[in-house]
Design a protein that fits this description.
- This protein is 44% helix and 17% strand.
- By secondary structure, it is of the alpha/beta class.
- It has a four-stranded parallel β-sheet with strand order 3-2-1-4.
- The protein is elongated, with a radius of gyration of 22 Å.
- The termini are far apart.
Length: 136
């Protein structure tokens, strides 16, 4: 049977090993620059469905980490905040960070990809290519 002092020593060793692993992981992550993705008009509903596609590796590959920056006007700040919280809760392994922005002063800085979700098309009925060809 182990003495409580031995158990404390083992627990301390386990803690130190865990802290070393966490430190190594952080060092490795600091060497990898994630792809910077900016999404404009990010309060529109399609953005909520777009984030999982980007963050699970379907678009940029299973080895590309990403940082998503959501951009919209100040009036939609709460919606942006809720989208950020939802994405963080999903804990995608490739999503390094997600943030909300309402000002244009820092918009698109170091952007690798900019996705423009134009809200003009949201109120229009978009017909399929097949229907468009049939009408012509």
């Amino acid at each position: 049977m182990m003495l409580s002092e031995e158990m404390l020593d083992i627990a301390e060793e386990n803690l130190q090993a865990h802290l070393e692993i966490v430190k190594e992981d952080e060092e490795i992550k600091s060497l990898i620059k994630p792809m910077q993705i900016w999404i404009t008009s990010a309060s529109v509903p399609i953005c909520y469905h777009l984030i999982p596609l980007l963050a699970n590796g379907e678009v940029f590959g299973m080895t590309t980490e990403i940082s998503i920056h959501l951009l919209d006007t100040v009036q939609f700040k709460e919606i942006l905040r809720s989208i950020v919280m939802e994405a963080e809760d999903m804990a995608f392994p490739l999503l390094r960070s997600i943030s909300e922005h309402t000002g244009l002063d820092q918009a698109f800085v170091d952007a690798d990809v900019i996705i423009v979700l134009d809200d003009v098309l949201l109120n229009l009925e978009v017909q399929s290519l097949e229907n468009y060809i049939r009408e012509e």
